[in-house]
Write a structure and sequence with these properties.
Blueprint: H1 2-9, H2 12-57, E1 67-68, E2 71-72, H3 79-117, E3 128-130, E4 133-140, E5 145-149, E6 152-155, E7 161-163, E8 168-176, E9 180-187, E10 191-198, E11 209-210, E12 215-218, E13 231-238, E14 241-243, H4 245-252
Antiparallel strand pairs: 1-2, 3-6, 4-5, 6-13, 7-12, 8-9, 8-11, 9-10, 10-13, 13-14
Length: 253
């Protein structure tokens, strides 16, 4: 019995088959292990790359109105918003300027208008040689008698131009037998002035508007006072009644 067993164990063919089978098993196991390892690598690598790509393509959070790296960050305005704001600012500025301009223009016009209404000047530069005397007669060298003097006489050079005392409307242009060529102007302050002793060349017409200081005629002669110095005879009325022209000039001119 023992001899048979030994023979079996010492059989070289059988031993070689065993080792070959063992080698094949080891090879198969190694191949399976390598395949499994490669599969694991292939499975993990795409995920990591995909994750990296996903993280790279993922948009970064937009900065908000908070500090970034220690600096204050503010969201930039879009061109449209900036343009609209600029346009609105320009329009508002233009409107304000326009409103201010209109207010200033209106105020200036009002002031000028008021200035013109309250502006008066002397019709001629000279001294008064005969005053207003509607009740007490004064002697007339030319007429050789005593008579009332309803106006005032202001000395002037022959041909000297006469100015409108204030703004007004020319009511009459006529030739008076005693006082010569005359112009009656109703002024804006309610005073009517009659400029007498003018030359036939009158510079205004009836119904015409005049402004303060406009030339209306020139000094000439006064038939009833021709013996006196060359002068302008000026008469003043208010509400159709005679008043002292000298007092009017001293008050307003």
């Amino acid at each position: 019995m023992k001899s048979n067993t030994k023979e079996k164990n010492n059989n070289p063919k059988k031993n070689a088959g065993f080792y070959i089978a063992l080698a094949l098993c080891i090879t198969a196991i190694g191949g399976a292990a390598w395949t499994t390892y490669s599969s694991v690598l292939d499975y993990q690598t795409p995920k990591e790359e995909s994750s990296a790509q996903s993280e790279g393509s993922k948009p970064k959070d937009k900065p908000t109105d908070k500090t970034v790296s220690g600096l204050e960050y503010s969201k930039p305005e879009s061109k449209t918003e900036s343009s609209e704001k600029t346009t609105n600012t320009i329009l508002e500025s233009s409107e304000e300027s326009s409103e201010v301009s209109i207010e200033e223009s209106s105020s200036e016009s009002s002031e000028i208008s008021q200035e013109n209404e309250n502006k008066f000047i002397k019709p001629i530069d000279g001294k008064i040689i005969k005053g207003y005397s509607p009740e007490n007669p004064v002697y007339s060298k030319t007429m050789g008698d005593w008579r009332v003097h309803e106006g005032i006489d202001i000395t002037a050079d022959d041909g000297e131009k006469v100015r409108a005392y204030s703004d007004g409307i020319v009511k009459k242009v006529y030739n008076d037998e005693l006082l010569g060529y005359s112009i009656e102007i109703e002024h804006n302050n309610g005073i009517t002035m009659i400029y007498s002793g003018l030359s036939p060349t009158i510079l205004v017409k009836e119904g015409e508007s005049v402004s303060c200081g406009d030339y209306i005629g020139a000094v000439f002669t006064i038939p009833s006072e021709i013996m006196d110095e060359v002068h302008l005879h000026l008469t003043a009325k208010k509400d159709g009644k005679l008043i002292d022209a000298q007092a009017v000039l001293e008050k307003n001119a």
